[in-house]
Records
---
Amino acid sequence: MARTRATASIPVRRLHRVAVVALMVGLAGTGALFMTATPAHADEKPTATADTPAITSMWAWGNSVDPAADNRGLGQAELAPAALASFAQAHSLTSVYLSVPWAADQGAIGTWLADSVDALHAVGVRVSALGGDASWLSNPALVAQWITDARGAADFDAVQLDVEPWAGQAQADFATITPEYVALLHAAKTAAGPLPLGADLPWWLTTVPSGDATVFNALLPSLDSVAIVAFADHAAGPDGIVALATPAATAVSAAGKPFTIGVETDTPEVAGGPQFTFADDGEATLVIETDAVRDAFARTAGYHGVTVEHVRSWIALLG
């Protein structure tokens, strides 16, 4: 999902699907994916109930800015401030990850960001500045500058990083990636100041060794929250959302931090196959399966619902 620093683009979050499928098959053969969500202590109240909306947040990639007014503009009407706020309110969302281009405090993009954050705040929605680029790992000063500009553009509540240096690589060099990513997170946390720092992390990082633990565990201490990317079109089973997300959810919960579970609604072509997205399954299936995810994690401390990737494809799915 590489992005350039100078322009806004919609990410292709596909996480080298062939390798991921092979990993799932191998783990299923050992029984490692047959897991259930870790319950909270017996005296704790559930963090979600059957009356709680399953989907609580979404990724909002893109913008509604006219390209003629700003070369970063994408002219996407669904991302207009009023439209974003209306959609979030209609679907009882509590949080939106709003994509932020480079030099966010300049030009028409800056105005759009400020107006979007204000509109979402007006309907009670928390807004995180969303962005990332794999090239930032080799130069953490870039993430610091991006966050500084984002904070100057709008009154964000948090920062959400989406940095995928492993994307498109059959054999990613995690011996190099992991310490660089940790350094990036430290730079980001300093630049974020009082704003909480979150990140989008794929479930399978819990299967990649790093020292005595995993890459996921290595990154977690530097984060205040995690959106666990667990793209599948069903909740149950060894390759379902619950089994995929459980090890990561267990780790985040044990660390006393909040998390959400990410699901996909983009086209099968973009998602890497129909098994990774709800786009070809329809609204009813999305509701049923995300309700099942909510029920599975309801008693897991720190669980904050399901996050949908992404607003425009979700609107298309709803018809």
---
Amino acid sequence: MSPHVRNAPDPPTTDPVWTPILTDLRATALDCLQTSFALLADHANGAGSHLALGARYGFYTRERDGLVTVEATSDDRAAEAVDLLGLRVEGRWVQLDGRQVRRLCGPGQPLYVTADAYDLPWCPYHGHERMRHSFLVASADAGEVTVVDAYHNDTAWGAARPGVWRLPTARFDAALAGGAHTLAVAAHPAPAIDVPAMLAGNADRARRARPEIAGYLARMGATLDTVAGLHRLVLDVWLLARARDLHEQWLATVAPDAAAALADQGPRWQQLATRSYVALRRAQAGRPAAPELADALGALIADHLAALESIAGPATPAGGDGVRAAVLGALGDTLHLDGSELRATDVLRELPGFDSFRLVDVIDRVERRLGVEVPATALSAADLRDVGSLCAMFGAAAGGAR
């Protein structure tokens, strides 16, 4: 960044311990509170350990400044780190100044710290925007403090990139003059995740989240004629997109075939993030808002939920085994494949010989075998993506016919 930019962030340095960890971190899929827990996990248990933060799906809303949001708190992120990464919070202090934080930092005992990004000289937000931001205090001595910050984002004031900064104690103390929340975190071996059980739980949580999501979208949509509402939408889209990306990256390490169910969603989330930000900038200039963005967000969330359900396999209402057998049999007969070898996560368009004409043949065969007719409104891209979603679509139709 040019040195003429007001409040330009301090340049980073390198560190033999932390720079390699930062290099391997999937920081583009983490928010600014997760990054420092991710660093601690990888420092203790090896590269990639932090991806377990993406294992569990959940949709939770809260009130902030009179608006509904999906933004997590630092306590939420700490609870996730304990459950999924094996970290343990062994000390907690609020509103410490820089000197107090330095005194807590012992050799080899990095501290998890949150403070106002407006005051942090290595952040692009320095002097521009107030928000809670996390970093590690890796070491502190009489003259210098080593700060590790893994945040990765492009901001209106420049790029935030993971790095290590060494600050004179006076400058560090000035950055924390507004008070810092500090955690002493101990690392334990990461808990083993039962992947099939986690995927089944995600599917169940996705189904149960639908009423809360509908309420959230309605409340969010009602605020999109205001700058504050659009500002909140921009942040929420960013957070939801990163959470989805983190889940996909975790899946790629534990169930690569299942990750394919999410593979085409990332660019669409990026597109919505851009549209939302453009709408915010126009509203700030006094131009009309874009209420249709709530519907666009709802469509992306619906596709995400459908993928989570298909990854775990279709729900099993009465006749579930019969539905699956009918779908696999129709696919096998139409495409001349061994249906018993097909998996729920197999993407239909990647099956040998598959095309839109074969899909119509498959639908006709399954409808005849089950004695049902799928409503035209159910023939969506999400329902026709992979074997699992096709089974779920016919399962819903068979259940409704009874």
